[in-house]
Amino acid sequence: MTVRCYGIAATKCGEIATYDFALRLLIWIQEKPLITEQTVRVAASCQGVGLHSGAPVSLQILPAPAGTGIIFRRVDLDGFEIEAVGKNVARVSYATSLMKKGVLISTTEHLLSAFVGMGIDNAIVQLDNLELPILDGSAKPFIDLIKKAGIRKQRRPRTYIRILRPLEFREGNKFIGVYPARAYSVSYKINFPHPMIGRETFSVELTNGQYVSKIAPARTFGFLHEAEAMRQQGLIRGASSENALVLTRDGLVNPPLRFEDEFVRHKILDLIGDLALVGRRILGRVVADRAGHAMHTALVSRLLRDRTLWEETTLPEEPAEGYTHQEMRPALQGMN
Ligand SMILES: [Zn+2]
Prior knowledge:
Elements: H1 2-30, E1 36-40, E2 44-49, E3 56-62, E4 70-74, E5 80-83, E6 89-92, E7 96-100, E8 103-105, H2 109-118, E9 123-127, H3 140-149, E10 151-157, E11 160-163, E12 167-171, E13 174-180, E14 185-192, E15 198-205, H4 210-215, E16 221-223, H5 224-232, E17 245-247, H6 262-275, E18 281-289, H7 293-305, E19 310-313, H8 325-333
Parallel strand pairs: 4-9, 11-18, 14-18, 16-17
Antiparallel strand pairs: 1-10, 2-3, 3-9, 4-5, 6-7, 7-8, 11-19, 12-13, 13-18, 14-15
Helix pairs in contact: 2-3, 2-6, 6-7
Bound molecules: zinc ion.
């Protein structure tokens, strides 16, 4: 009796499986193609110093197979690898660092932000020291590096995390929240009691190349009167007026600004880089008010822990979505 039941179940199961396969095939044929993952076309490298460590570092971005995500590789430590995912987040005060088995990769947010802005899902990032180079303090040099390497579309559909219900954190007057939305957008508000900053608000949707033109060039910033105390804590040892906007009590050491609201735009740059540690692209509206790396990464941890907040989804391809290598070709033709 038991054996016969198994037999019936197996037959039905087989029929359902065949039907399901045929249906999926039909849907697949009729549907628009899905947005797929992307990697860099060839390797590209740059050199610089770490903002906090001041250590010289060489960085190389390499192509990676679909499904890899972003992996950092310490070539100075036998190629030890650390995945850019929430569970590896370590210290987050002035920068976001990743740590695995005691090995550190520091100040990851500007490069991760550039990857999101350029639609790079998979890459190996090799470096020969513990901190990424700060370069000019913005994500623009990383954008240029990715453009130089070119972008290659891969076959695997890109998985998005679609936010299903709001998630909010409040800490005194600091706030961060994420809400359901059809696209990934970020709004940020800051309020520094400084004549050059004050209240600044900026919003951006990560489509149509907006990231590249409006967010990527915004540089990191710091206050001269805090510099000595930070150096005492082992921070900003690589900082200079070449790689950060340096503010005095009432002015700016190294004008001009690239945007009149460059400060808040840089906060958005950092937030996008920190949220990249979710490991997949977000479909939702992020709102932040005077938040920082610690609150950004708290949001990441909570999202990863609570599966009821989101669902995985794929999206049909739209000509305006991000950058593809077809769009990159004219830029590449003009470069040597
Ligand atoms: Zn930053």
